[in-house]
Amino acid sequence: MPAIPACDISAAYPGHSFELPYQVETAGQSLSIRARTPGVNPMRSFEEEEDKVEAGLIATRDLLAWIRANAGEIARLLDIP
Length: 81
Fold this sequence. Notes:
Elements: H1 9-12, E1 23-27, E2 30-34, H2 46-69, H3 71-77
Antiparallel strand pairs: 1-2
């Protein structure tokens, strides 16, 4: 399955109603759900990159909350009992 734009999850899974603010793509036989985050330059000091690191942590927290809130629908999509 190709990457699905956040606004077009219904095209890949007709009949499912949750909104997806993340990018979904296959990874081998697995499903990858990714949040876009700013790149961190490891050659710069932490202080210079701190805002980007914080944005990544916030995106991770929000993705976890979204997964928890949509666990039932995700399980149905993946055919998990």
